[in-house]
Amino acid sequence: MTGYDIGPWSLRWRGLSVPQLRRTESTFALSNGHIGMRGTLDEGEPRGLPGTYLNGFYEEHALPYGEAGYGYPEAGQTVVNVTDGKVIRLLVEDEPLDMRYGRALEHDRELDFRSGTLRRRTLWESPTGRRVVVRSERLVSFTQRAVAAIHYVVEPEDALQLVVQSDLLANEPVEHRPGDPRVAAALDAPLVGDFAWAQGARAVLAHHTRHSGLRMAAGMDHELDTHEGLRTGIHAEGDLARFTAAVDVPAGGALRLTKYLGYGWSAQRSVPALRAQVDAALAGARQTGWEGLLAEQRAFLDDFWEVADIEVVGDDELQQALRFALFHLLQAGARGETRAIAGKGLTGPGYDGHAFWDTEMFVLPVLTYTVPDAARDALRWRHSTLDKARERADVLGQRGSAFPWRSINGAECSAYWPAGTAAFHVSGDVAHAVAQYLAATRDTEFDRECGTELLVETARLWMSLGHNDPHDGFRIDGVTGPDEYSAIVDNNTYTNLLAQKNLRSAVEACERNPDIAGTLRVGADEVAAWREAAERMRIPFDAMLGVHEQAEGFTAHAEWDFEGTRPEDYPLLLTKPYFDLYRKQVVKQADLVLAMHVRGDAFSAEEKAANFAYYEARTVRDSSLSAGTQSVLAAEVGHLQLAYDYLAEAAFTDLHDLHDNVHNGLHMASLAGAWIGLVAGFGGMRDHSGLTFAPRLPPGLERMAFRMSFRGTRFSVSVTRDEATYRIVSGGPLRTAHHGTPIEVGPDEPVSLPVPDPPTPPEVRQPAGRAPARRFPPGG
Amino acid sequence: MTGYDIGPWSLRWRGLSVPQLRRTESTFALSNGHIGMRGTLDEGEPRGLPGTYLNGFYEEHALPYGEAGYGYPEAGQTVVNVTDGKVIRLLVEDEPLDMRYGRALEHDRELDFRSGTLRRRTLWESPTGRRVVVRSERLVSFTQRAVAAIHYVVEPEDALQLVVQSDLLANEPVEHRPGDPRVAAALDAPLVGDFAWAQGARAVLAHHTRHSGLRMAAGMDHELDTHEGLRTGIHAEGDLARFTAAVDVPAGGALRLTKYLGYGWSAQRSVPALRAQVDAALAGARQTGWEGLLAEQRAFLDDFWEVADIEVVGDDELQQALRFALFHLLQAGARGETRAIAGKGLTGPGYDGHAFWDTEMFVLPVLTYTVPDAARDALRWRHSTLDKARERADVLGQRGSAFPWRSINGAECSAYWPAGTAAFHVSGDVAHAVAQYLAATRDTEFDRECGTELLVETARLWMSLGHNDPHDGFRIDGVTGPDEYSAIVDNNTYTNLLAQKNLRSAVEACERNPDIAGTLRVGADEVAAWREAAERMRIPFDAMLGVHEQAEGFTAHAEWDFEGTRPEDYPLLLTKPYFDLYRKQVVKQADLVLAMHVRGDAFSAEEKAANFAYYEARTVRDSSLSAGTQSVLAAEVGHLQLAYDYLAEAAFTDLHDLHDNVHNGLHMASLAGAWIGLVAGFGGMRDHSGLTFAPRLPPGLERMAFRMSFRGTRFSVSVTRDEATYRIVSGGPLRTAHHGTPIEVGPDEPVSLPVPDPPTPPEVRQPAGRAPARRFPPGG
C-alpha cells in the first residue's frame, strides 16, 4: 500500500496512486492564508479536485427553504475555485506527460515543513518508451503575500523535443458535489471574463463573479533556462492564458522553467487597479527570483519553528503529524490579514469555504501562543464584520452583536437555524479568543482599536439574550451549544460559562479603557448589570447524579441505545433524525467537556473527574472537533493513555483520513486539536489567570518539548517522565506555575521541577464501539 | 359598504364588489366533502381564484432544503385546481356578460343553509343598454357524491339573441402565490390530458397529474328548456369541452339550462374506468333531475339541522355565523369517505390543501356529536394511512405510528421539522378523537376494524418516545405542543396529558377486544407498561408561581416585551425570528388552556382559574385555532363576557375576514371553534367520562339552544338566564349531568334545572393590544 513516509520534517508520498490523489491534494496543499493551492500535479490531470483559492473570494447563491421563516438568511456563499496558475503541461515529442499513460518508474512528492515547498520528482516513460525526469518545486510565499512560484525542470534521458505549456486557466470544470442544484448552478463557471492580456512571457486574466460581484486578477510570468533553439509564444483569451516553450534538449540537458504567479482580488477596486496590483506582485517576485523566494520562505519558517516547534520522542509518526499540523495551521493563518480562517483553511472546498467558531476556540489558541500576529489578524476580521453582526442581532431582536455560525464575508449563511443562528456561543467564543489574545500579548493597540469593542458588543448580546429570573438566576434560554446533537436548549453550561467570562472581560476592558467605554456609551449601570449577570449566571447541576448538566434537563433525558446502534450508523446525523438525537443523552462532540477545558476555573477537580466519566460514556465523537478536547480533560483527570489515544486521533484525522473526507480539505480545528492535546493536555497549559502548566508524560513517550510565545517571551517546556524544564528561548522572564507551584523562569535560568504522580480517576468507558483506537507507538 | 346581510338561515351579499369577490368565493363555496367548488361567478370572470377540488387529489413536488437532514420529507403535496365545470358564459347579442362592463343594476347572491344551494340573481345592462336577468342556482350534492349541478336561467327584458357556452376547463391559469418557485412550477398547468370526448349535450375530459400520477375525469351533461330555433353544438379537445346553445328569446321569454357535472378520480383505476364512473354519475343525476336533486339536498339538510342546529336569541349576527359554521363543517365532512378533512375543507388552496391535527381536535368533536358517520369516515382515513404512519415512525427511530403534521395522502409534507415532525401530539389527537367517537357512539364495528388498532399503535409511539426516568417519572422530551411559538420542548403538558389518555384508552380497547389485542401482539407486559407510564406521566407544575407549566421550564423563560411590540408586528411569526419566540413566554395559541379543556379532568377548578389567568396574559392569538378554546375556559372559570368575545372572534374569523386570508379558504377549525365555544363553553359540555353539561348564558344573550347526538339519541339543551332544559328529540333516554348533578332525560320527559351563579375568578388581562374585540350584540 502506498502511503506517507514517516519523517520528522516532511510529508512524503512515494509511488503513484491515482485514487489517492484527492487525499494528497489536500495534505500537500500550499497556502499563506491569502492564496491557497491544492497539491494537484503540475500537469493538471489526473486529479481529484482542482483548487486555487483566494481568502474571502466567494460566489453567492439563494438559500432555499421548504418553509421559510422571518430572519432566515437568504444568501449563501461558496468559495470559488479561481484562475488556476499551477498548470504546466509537458509534451515529450508530442506525447503529453500523463501519469495515467506510459509508466511512472519513479514518483515522489514531498511537502517540506522547513522549506515551505512541495517538491515532486517523477521518472516517466512515455507509451513509446521515451524517458524524462520531471522535478518541480512549488511555493506560496509567506513573505510576498500575493505571490506563488513554481520551479519546473525536465531532464530527458535522450535527446528529445520538449514542449512546455504554462497556463492560467479560469472556470475549470469541476465534478459537481451532491447537494442543492442551485448551488451547483451558481458554481458552474462562476467567473465572468473581464480582461485578458499577454506579452512576452507574461499574461494577466481578470474576472468577476456573477452574483457576488467580486473581481479578481491572476498573472503569470516566466523565466526559462535551457538550450538553443528555444521558441516561445504567449496568448490570452477569456478563460485561458498560455505560455508555450518548445526546445530540443540534448541528452543530459535540461529545460528549467520558473513560473511566477501573482493574484489579487477586491470587491471595490477596478480591473485596471487589480491588474496593476498583479503586475506589481510579479515584478517583486521576479526581482527576488526563485532562489530569493526560497531563502525568504526558509527564513520565515526558521523563525516559526523557533517559537512553535514540538518535539516528541518515542512516537515518530506523531512527531511528523504534530509538525504537519503546525505547518498547516501556519499556512492557514499566516497572511490572512483581516480575512477569516476557514474551517478547511485554503486546502479545499469543504464546508463551502466557511469559517466557524472552531477558528476562535481551536485554531486561534495555537496561533495566539505561536504566531500572535496571525491571531490578531483573524480577530481583526471579526472586528471588520461588526456591522454585519450588529445588523444580525437586530434582525434577531437582540442588542449587541451576533456573529454568524458560518460565513465567508461575515454574513450568516446557515440555512438551518437550530444549529446555526441559535448557536450564540459563537459570539462568546470570539470574546474568549479576544480575551485570551489580550492576556497573552498585552497588545494595547488591538485592545483599543478592536478588542474592547468586541468584548462590549458581545457582552451586550448576552444581556439581551439572557434574563434575571426569580427562579434560578441569570438564564440564557433557547440556544444551541457546541454539541450538535442537542439544539435549542436552556442554559447550556458551556454557553453560560463563556458568557460569564465574556461579561467579566467586558467589565475589565471598560475599566482599562474608560474613554473607549465612553465612546461605546457604556454606563456604570451597564457595567453593574454585567457584573451581576455574571455573578448570578445559572450553571445547571444534577444533584441526584452529582454531575453538571450539559444543559438544563439534559441528564433527565433518555439514554441513547448505543448497544443497538450499528457501526455503520455512525456518524449518527446521516442515519438518525435530529429530533431523536436532540432529545437523548447522546453527545456529538465535547461540550460540557470543552467547558471544563476553557473554563476549568469553574469546576473542582472532583467535578471534572465525575463529569468527564459521565459525558465520556455518552460522547460518540461524530465531529472532528472532539478528540483534542477529550484528550485535554482525560489528561487532566489522570487518564493518560486515553488522552494519548485521543491526541493521536486528532493528530491523524487528516493523515489517516479518519472521516473519509480529507479530499474536501484539511480539518484545521482537528490539526489545532493535536497541538491543544499536547500542550494543554500533556503540558497542562491553562490560561484562566496568567499562564500555568501541569505537565505529565503519557505512557509510551520518552520525552516531549513544546515552545510558546507569551507577552513577547519565547520559551520551551521540556518534559520527561520525572521532570519538566522551563527554558527561555528569547525575551524577558516568565512567571508561570508548575502543578500549582508558582515559578519564575529567567533568561539563561531554566527551572526544572519534578512531575507529580497523576490522580487516580474513576473508570471511564465510551459508548459501545466508540472507544478511540488504542495507540501503541511504534517504539513503545 | 357592501357586506353580508344578516339573516338566520342564509348568507347573502347584495351588490357587486369586484375586490371582495375573492372573499365571497370562499364563504359561498359549495362542497360535499368529496367535490368542492369555490363560489366564483358562473361566467368565470372576474374572479379571485378559480377552484374546483376533489378530496385527495394532489400534485407532488420536491421539498427544497438549504441544509438537508436525515428523515426530512422529500416530497410536498399540493391540492390541484381540477377541471372546472362551473363555467357558463353568456353572450347577449354578441356582448359577453361581464360584471366589469355595462352595469349590474341588481346583483344578489345567497348561500342557503337549508336548501344547500348558492343562488344568484343579476339584472345586468350591457354596455349598449340591453338588459337581462340571470338567475342561477348551484349545488354540490350531499346525496349523490360525484355530482354537482347548476340551474341557469336567463330572462331578457326585450327580445334578444342569447348564446350560452357551458365549459369544462382544465389547467385554468392561476395567479401564482408567492413562495417556492418549484412549487409554483409544479402547479403551472398540472393536468396532462388523457382523453376528451363530446356528443350531444355531454362531454368528458380525463387528465392525470404529472408527478403524483393521479387520474381524474370530469363530465358534463345538459338539459335545455327554451324557445324554438335553438341551435346547440358540443366539442371537446385537450383541456376544454364546450357545449354551446344559441337561441332567440322573445320579450318575457327565458332560456333555462340545467348543467349536470360528474367527477371521479383514482390513483389506480384506468381512464376508461374513470370515464364510466363519470358517465354513471351523470346518468344518475339526470335521472333524478334538477328538482329531484334539490329535494334530496333539502331532506339531507333537514335531517342535519334536526340534530345539529344552534339557536341564539339576542345576537342575530352570531345566530347566522353559527349556522354558517355548521353548514360549512357539514360540507367539509359529509361525504369525505376515508379522505382527509383539510384545514380549509374544499373551499380554497390555503395550506396547500393539507389536513392537520385541527381536524381531530376541533372539527371532529362537532361531527362526532352531530354527524357521527362523517367523524367515523375521517378517522377511517387516518386508519387507511397507518402504513405510512408506521413507516414514518420507523424512519424516526420510533415504534408504533407517527401521524403527519400536514398531509393530503398521509405522508408527512412538513419541511420544517421543529414545528412538524416534532409535533407528535398529532398522534395523541387522533387517539383522542377515536376515543371520543367511540364513547359518543359505541360503534363496535369501527372499534374492531379501526379504533383499537389506532389506539394501540399510537400508544406504542408514546412508549417509544417517552421513558421512565429516575428523576421525575415518565417523560416525553424534545417534542412540540400545539403552541407554535414554542418547539422541541420537554414534557409539554398538553402532549403528556393526551398521551396519558391515549395509553389508558389503549388499555381499555385491548380489554374490550382481547382478540384484536392478540392480533396486534399486545401482551400483558405491554398493557402493564402503558398503565404504569400513564400513572407516572410527568406533568410539570411551577410551585413558586402556583401554575402548570406549558412545558418544562416554560415559566422560567423570559417574558415577551408586549408593551414594546407594535400592532403591525402581529402575527409575530412574520416579524420575529422563531428562535426568540420559542424561548420566551409568548403563546401563539391555546396549549395549556386546550389541555384544560380536553383533559379538564386532570385539573382542579382552582388550578384552572390560576392557569387561565397566567396563560391569558401571554397568549397573542396569532392562530385562528385559539379563540374557541379560550372561550371554553373563560366560560368555565367564570369570565362569561370574555368567553362571549372569544366565541364571537371564532365565529366571525371568516365572515369578518379577521386574518385577511379568507380568499385562500375558510378556517374549518375556527368554524368548529364557534360550535365548541358555544356547546362546550356556554353549554359546559364535557365528555371526560360520560357526557356532562354546565350551561350558563353569557350577558347579552336571552336564550340559547343546541342539539346533539349521543349514542343514537338526539336531544336538545335549551338555556335561559335562570334555567336549562334537556329534551329528547328522538331515541332513548339520556343520562348526563347538569352542573355536577346526575340527571336522566326520558323521551317526552324534559328535565329543567336552575342555572347556578358563576364562580368569581381572578382578574385576567391579555397582552397589550391583544384583548379580543368586546362584543356588544346589536340587541344588547
Describe the structure.
Chains A, B: This is Alpha,alpha-trehalose phosphorylase. Chains A, B: Belongs to the glycosyl hydrolase 65 family. Two copies of one chain form a homodimer. In chain A, helix 10 runs antiparallel to helix 12 and helix 15 crosses helix 16 (626-637). The first copy, chain A, is an alpha+beta fold and 780 residues long. Chain A contains 18 helices and 33 strands. In chain A, the strands form nine sheets. In chain A, strands 1-2-10-11-12-13-20-17-16-15 form a ten-stranded antiparallel beta sheet. Chain A has a five-stranded antiparallel beta sheet with strand order 9-8-14-19-18, with no helix packed on it. In chain A, 31% of the residues lie in helices and 25% in strands. Chain A is globular. In chain A, strand 24 and strand 25 (547-548) form a beta hairpin. The model of chain A has no long low-confidence stretch (mean pLDDT 96). The first copy, chain A, has two domains: 11-297, Distorted Sandwich (Beta-galactosidase, Chain A, domain 5); 309-714, Glycosyltransferase (Alpha/alpha barrel). Chains A and B meet through strand 22, strand 26 and helix 13 of A and strand 22, strand 26 and helix 13 of B.
